[in-house]
Amino acid sequence: MTDIEAEKMLEQARSLVEEGKKEEARMCLLNLLKDEPKNIAALLMLGGSYFEANNFKEAKLVFQQLIKICPGVGLYSIALFNALWRLKETDEALKEIRRFILHADKDAEKETIAQYLSTLSAMKNNNQTNVVP
User: Is the full-model pTM beyond 0.70?
Assistant: First the structure.
């Protein structure tokens, strides 16, 4: 598949979402990912679509793929953390925070790291965890 064809499929998926045809948009993204399994934009759109539909198990799987491709990107880490949290997989969510802090570029991702540290502090204050990375 050429870059132009992939971009057209992404645009088609965006249009379908705007028309409220979210399942058709997901199918379009899945078809694109068959040919380009590492297409970041398609993975991000698909994961977001699953998350928005409260299908957190599928969102988790998609966000895990993004993490494998780009382990140090805060946006993808936060997406995975939120999916894990919604699934009540607290230990896995905490592991994701630790994993991210170890892999992240500390300068480029200082906002995400600060957000995670704030989250951990709030969790500790609410007795949700005593684990600090």
Answer: yes
